[in-house]
Structures are given as structure tokens and as C-alpha cells.
Design goal:
Elements (H helix, E strand, L loop, with lengths): L1 H15 L2 H23 L8 H24 L3 H15 L8 H15 L7 H11 L6 H12 L1
Helix pairs in contact: 1-2, 2-4, 3-4, 5-6, 5-7, 6-7
Length: about 150
């Protein structure tokens, strides 16, 4: 499903002569192909699944946000604008991000389901959150909320 959307988006961007979208979708597809090749080496002939693709997209957005911060400090507004445009393109393929309240509710549900009682259970809780909410949640913020919930 997501792979088909990416391929179709590339075709559309090429027809529309949208250079930012073309280059960004090509970067996504290249990263996806790299991950698929690595997965085949581990015995997964079909490549990576949707949750892993969403994690890939989320990490690409995170990288661009970090770059924006550095470019802004360096006074390179042209590069800040380019990274921001790439984020907009990548986020088209991601599900709606959870707000703080939805993240807290999801964390509470997973903590209760896993029977987590202390900080030693944090890894198990984070694993379940990644499986269920890939691409929907900022896991850096989720990690902070899980620590608070388990403390």
C-alpha cells in the first residue's frame, strides 16, 4: 500500500515537474531499497513491512529537523527552507501524528496490558508502542512519558 503510494507520488511529481518532491521521494525509495536488501540478507524475501517503512520515514523527518536546527545556527536560510520542504513531502506518507493526550492514553493502555510496574519494564513497553504506533508517535517524547508513567 505505502510502496504503491510512493511510486505513484514519484510519477505525479515528475509529471508536475516538482523537483523537491521528485528528489525527496527518490531518497525515500532509495532508503527503502537499501532496507529491503538488508532484510533479504536476513531471510526476508519480501523486504520490510509497513511498520518499518513508517519508522524509516519518521527517522528521515527527525534527521531533517536536526539539520534545520544546525543550518539555522549557521545562518543558511536557503538550506533551512529546503529541509522544511522535504519534511512536508515526507509527512504526506505518514499517518496523522498523535497529540500529547493520545500518546499518554496509548502509553497507559500498553503499560496496563504489559503489566509494567517499574522502569525495568520500559524496554518492553517501548517495543509494544513501536509495533502498534509506528509513524504516529514521536518516540523520543514517548520515552519521556513512559519514564514518568513507570516512575
Amino acid at each position: 500500500m505505502l510502496r504503491a503510494r510512493l511510486s505513484e507520488a514519484l510519477k505525479t511529481a515528475m509529471r508536475d515537474r516538482d523537483q523537491t518532491a521528485v528528489s525527496t521521494v527518490r531518497l525515500i525509495l532509495a532508503a527503502l531499497k537499501d532496507r529491503d536488501i538488508a532484510a533479504r540478507g536476513k531471510g526476508n524475501a519480501e523486504g520490510i513491512g509497513e511498520p518499518e517503512i513508517l519508522q524509516l520515514l519518521q527517522s528521515m523527518v527527525k534527521q531533517r529537523r536536526e539539520s534545520i536546527e544546525l543550518y539555522a545556527k549557521g545562518g543558511r536560510q536557503d538550506l533551512v527552507d529546503q529541509e522544511a520542504r522535504e519534511i512536508v513531502v515526507i509527512e504526506r506518507f505518514m499517518p496523522q501524528q498523535m497529540d500529547e493526550a493520545a500518546m499518554s492514553a496509548a502509553i497507559a493502555a500498553v503499560v496496563a496490558e504489559a503489566g509494567a510496574t517499574g522502569i525495568k519494564d520500559m524496554g518492553r513497553v517501548m517495543t509494544l508502542l513501536r509495533e502498534r504506533h509506528a509513524g504516529q508517535m514521536d518516540f523520543a517524547r514517548a520515552s519521556q512519558l513512559v519514564k514518568q508513567a513507570l516512575a
